[in-house]
Design goal:
The chain is α+β, with helices and mostly antiparallel strands and 593 residues long. It is 28% helix and 24% strand. The protein contains 16 helices and 24 strands. Strands 6-9-10-24-23-22-19-12 form an 8-stranded mixed beta sheet, with helices on both faces. Strands 1-2-3-5-4 form a 5-stranded mixed barrel. The longest helix has 23 residues, at 136-158. It is globular, with a radius of gyration of 30 Å. The chain starts with 19 loop residues before the first strand and ends in a 9-residue tail after the last helix.
């Protein structure tokens, strides 16, 4: 038996009535009733109410002990009366009558309260993260994260995957985000890079003859922080499989995600066979390749409507002639909505940097007409064509936006979210997964040069065994994203395992053979010695846990996060280093002028 406890603070029940026990933990809360002092003792497992009588010699000392001090108490379990049972805690049927106590660790004045989950400034929370982590909600989030990772490991083992660890110190990559660079002491003037992902290593594992690999991989990218992305580092479930096609990867990941989300959430999974949505279709229907399919609203292309002579909406007609596109969103049965609802959407769009959102509601008396500020510009025939193209009916409303393709996609995408939220159309008690497939391999950069749009190692799709190198912007890849509730969990691909094909694709993006050999020497060399067809994916652990914990910010499910400026306020990192350390690395700092 431990000298600190016979039980933890989350396991005693009325079955333990009259037993003598020892508990240790933090003083979570105190309530002084004059002759009786009640305190809640907390540890990792729960809370137990303890009580000490004023006649006890330890009463005054315990009364003066600061909250969050660590104490050991010896006492006796007593069953509570029915009217004092606390159903909110596991130990709510009992309390401990304190005989004696020992102060194990005193606590200074607290910079933030631990017994409540009230909002506090990011600076205070991160500077005193060890206190913040004692608070109930975030403590449970971190335990959830641990349990999720343990469950994933178990599932992956049962699916026949082997867990391997890939190097942390590796070479810099010309693609993707900024690398974190590490100077080499033994190789002056040269640098390692922390891996943005184990991309090349996971492929090399397949070339090495291992069939199924996974790891909970740390990844490092010198990127700005976002609500769903930590600055600096994150973790992903990295997996790769040999002798597979796209559907084989999908089947493994779908099974894992359904089991995982069913295990750790009571929310329903809308479809256990995840829809496959081509990239171009996703951009058309949702304005984004990260669609939230809980939202029933879809976006429609009505550009051609504004080429009709019987449409007199001249502002849009002029924009269409100059190359702009028109997108529309239909809302069902909104004829009785007040004018303020529509005007607020228009004002909101202007606040987002758009020119606004035109709108009208379809009516039918003797014939089809449109009610609203721009309704008069549309003939009955044009409205009938709009209804045919969008599925809109009498009583439905349409919101229009017009701009260049990227801008119109952006505003229509967020407008779709805004309108659905205002109309309360999104089922918050569900998870809706999908696959986005058929990504283009290349895109045109701002400098009018062709560049890889995503992963340069993806296998191109062919038609009748032929790849159309003459039209590179039309080439599609066996590349895919998995999305849940509008959050991208991961990108993945079937890999290009053929060196000659890789050289060809890189040449289209402006790389010559020598550059490819230099930047990807390990990969190219390995693929030249008999590489199997292989593919994989790497769902983000952080975003998975965010969804399961119903949190909006990654900070709430990360044990020791940095702030928005990529600083660790608790450990004062990054920090300055000594001149001697710099000399060992053959480095010197340039003084600011």
């Amino acid at each position: 038996m431990s000298k600190y406890r016979t039980h933890n603070c989350g396991e005693l029940t009325k079955k333990n009535n009259s037993q003598n026990v020892i508990l240790s933990g933090w003083i979570n809360k105190k309530r002084d009733h004059g002759n009786l002092l009640f305190l809640d003792l907390r540890d990792n497992y729960g809370i137990t109410q303890c009580v000490i009588d004023k006649s006890n010699k330890n009463f005054i000392k315990l009364e003066k002990t600061q909250l969050e001090s660590v104490i050991k108490i010896t006492g006796r379990v007593l069953e509570r009366s029915k009217d004092t049972i606390n159903k909110d805690i596991k130990t709510g049927e009992i309390e401990i009558t304190i005989d004696s106590f020992e102060l194990l660790g005193s606590c200074k004045e607290l910079p933030l309260p631990v017994f409540s989950d009230q909002e506090y400034s990011e600076e205070i929370r991160l500077k005193y993260r060890f206190l913040d982590l004692r608070r109930k909600k975030i403590h449970e989030n971190i335990i959830l994260r641990s349990n999720v990772i343990s469950f994933i490991r178990k599932e992956m083992n049962e699916l026949g995957f082997l867990e391997f660890q890939t190097p942390i110190l590796t070479s810099s990559s010309p693609e993707g985000a900024r690398d974190f660079l590490v100077p080499s002491r033994l190789n002056p003037g040269k640098f390692y890079a922390l891996p943005q992902a184990p991309q090349q290593f996971k492929q090399l594992i397949m070339v090495s003859g291992f069939d199924k690999y996974f790891q909970i991989a740390p990844c490092f990218r010198d990127e700005d922080a976002r609500a769903d992305r930590s600055p600096g580092e994150f973790y992903q479930l990295d997996l790769e499989m040999s002798f597979v096609e796209q559907e084989d990867v999908f089947n493994v990941v779908e099974k894992l995600m359904v089991n995982l989300f069913s295990k750790f959430s009571s929310k329903k999974i809308l479809t256990k066979k995840f829809p496959r949505i081509p990239f171009e279709e996703a951009m058309m229907k949702y304005g984004t390749d990260k669609p939230d399919l809980r939202n029933p609203l879809k976006i429609h292309d009505l550009t051609h409507i504004f080429e009709r002579d019987d449409v007199k909406f001249d502002i849009f007609k002029k924009l269409v002639k100059s190359g702009s596109k028109v997108r529309a969103i239909v809302t069902k049965n909104t004829k009785d909505k007040p004018r303020s609802f529509f005007d607020n959407i228009d004002k909101w769009a202007k606040d987002q940097g758009a020119s606004g959102m035109a709108y009208f509601t379809i009516e039918k008396q003797n014939q089809i007409s449109a009610k609203g500020p721009v309704g008069k510009f549309f003939s009955t025939k044009s409205l009938e064509e709009i209804m045919k193209n969008t599925g809109a009916q009498e009583g439905d409303s349409l919101f229009f936006t017009c701009d260049k393709i990227k801008q119109v996609q952006k505003i229509s995408s967020i407008a779709r979210e805004k309108i659905a939220t205002d109309l309360n159309l999104i089922d918050e008690n569900s998870f809706s997964f999908c696959w986005i497939v058929d990504y283009p391999i290349f895109e045109m950069g701002d400098d009018n040069k062709i560049k890889f749009s995503h992963n340069p190692f993806s296998m191109p799709q062919s038609i009748d065994g032929k790849i159309d190198f003459e039209n590179p912007l039309n080439l599609k890849a066996y590349q895919y994203d998995i999305v849940c509730n509008g959050i991208e969990l991961s990108s993945g691909a079937i890999r290009n395992h053929k060196p000659d094909l890789m050289y060809k694709l890189f040449s289209l993006a402006g790389y010559d053979k020598k550059q490819v050999d230099t930047k990807f020497s390990g990969m190219i060399n390995a693929l030249s010695y008999g590489a199997p067809p292989h593919g994989g994916i790497a769902p983000g652990i952080d975003r998975i846990v965010m969804l399961l914990a119903n949190e909006k910010n990654i900070r709430e499910i990360t044990m020791f996060p940095m702030n928005q400026n990529a600083q660790d306020l608790m450990m004062n990192a990054p920090s300055e280093v000594s001149i001697n350390q710099l000399k060992e690395l053959n480095l010197s700092l340039k003084k600011n002028i």
